[in-house]
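forwarding from the other thread:

> can someone predict this with adenosine-5'-diphosphate?

sure thing
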Amino acid sequence: MFKKVLIANRGEIALRVIRACKEMGISTVAVHSTADMDAMHVRMADESVCIGPPPSNKSYLSIPAIISACEVTGAEAIHPGYGFLSENSNFVDIINDHGIQFIGPTAEHIRIMGDKITAKETMKALKVPCVPGSDGSVNSLEVAMNVGQNIGYPLIVKATAGGGGRGMKVANNKDDLENAFLTARSEANSAFGNDEVYIERYLTNPRHIEIQVFGDGKGNAIHLGERDCSLQRRHQKVLEEAPGPSISAEVREYIGNICSKAVASINYAGAGTIEFLYENNEFYFIEMNTRLQVEHPVTEAIYGVDLVREQIRIASGFELSLNQNELHPNGHAIEARINAETLPNFIPNPGTVTMFHAPGGLGVRIDSNLYSGYQIPPHYDSLIGKLIVHGRDRKEAMERLKRSLDELIIDGIDTTTDLFHDLLKNKDIIDGNYNIHWLENWLLDK
Ligand code: ADP
C-alpha cells in the first residue's frame, strides 16, 4: 500500500480524499495556490506545498509544479480528484515517467474515453447500447445532410472533444442543420482547439442515468448501480439520487452487468462512470468519465462502500475488496450541490463566510470545505459543499434533506440552498417524475 499520497486538487474533493487516506494510514500532501493558503484541505493534510499563483493554469494545472511537490515530499502517488488534471492522459504519462503512480485508469483508457467518437466505437463493440448516429466524425455539410436523412430529426451535432455541455447544437429539421453544423464546429474549435464533430439522434425527453463501475485492471469488474442525475441546469447537475426513481432491480441488473462486462473486457482499472440517456425503457450511451464523480457519495450511502478507498487499493495493486454478489443497494440517498451563487440567475458570489454550521443526525453527510471566517477565493468553481442524506426509502430521504437544509447555516454569502427548499415542495420532484429538461423549464416558469 502507498505510504504517501499527494492530492492534486482543492475544495471539498481534496478533503474527501484526505479523509480516505487517513483512515487507511496513508500520509497526505496537499498542494495549493497562493489564494488557497488558508483552505481547509491545506489544514487537514499532513504536509502542504504551495504550487503557484491563483489562476488554475499556473497552479492546479501546472504539471511541473505538481511533480516537484511529489519529489520534495516523497509522495508515491497522485489522486487527481475530479476536474483539473483528472482526465488528462498526458499528465498520467508524464507522472508515470517520473515513477509516480496515478490513482485512476491508464493513460490509454483516459485517451479512448476522452474522445467521444473512439469512446462510442469502443462501447458499441462491447455491446453497450448507443444513441443512433453518424459513423465517426462528420466533415462536411453534405455528409451531415445524409446522416440527417438516415437517422431523422431532431438531431444533435456534438464536438468529439466535447465537455461541460459545450460544442453541442440541436437541429430540429433539415433547414436547421447547416446552422447547427457550422456553429457546433466553430464552438468546438474555440473551446477545444478541435473542430471535429459527430451527429446523434436527439432524444427529446430522456433521463440521465449513470452507472458506477470499478475495474481491477486484471479483467475483473463490478458495478454499483445507477444514479439519476437528470436535474440539470446548463448541463450541470444540481441534485442527484440513487437508486433512480425509474429503475427497477431487474433493469439495474441488466444495464449494470452490461457495463461491468464492458470494463472488465478492456482490463479497465479504477473507478469509472458510464453515462446514459434513458428514454422509453431504452439506454443510450453518451460518455464515460474515467474518474471519481462529484455525486459519488449517493452511491457510497446506499452500498456502504468507500469508493476512494477502492480507488487507492486498486492503484496500489490490490484486488477489489468486494465482489458483485456482496453488493446490494440499501435505502435511498440524495445529494444537493450547494454553490456560492446568487439566485435566481446563479451568479457566482464568492466572499467571506461569517458563520458556517453543518447539519447532523442520522443519515446526514456534509462534504464541504467551508468554515466560519473562510474567504472563498473568486478564482475557482462555485461548488462549496454537498449535502448528502440517506434514508430507508425515498420519502424518508426527502424528509431528511428538508430537515437538514433547515439546519444548515451559511452566513455572509448567497448560496443555492433555497432552490432545494423550493424543489422539495414540488409534486413532480416528490413523485420522482422528471427528465433532463425539467429543471430548466421549471426555472423559466418560476
Ligand atoms: P458533455 O461531455 O459536454 O457533458 P455529454 O455527451 O455528456 O456532453 O452530454 C451532456 C448533456 O447533453 C446530456 O446530459 C444531455 O442533457 C445532452 N445530450 C447529449 N447528447 C444528447 C442526445 N443525443 N440527445 C439528447 N440530449 C443529449
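DSSP finds 15 helices and 20 strands in the chain. thats all i got for now
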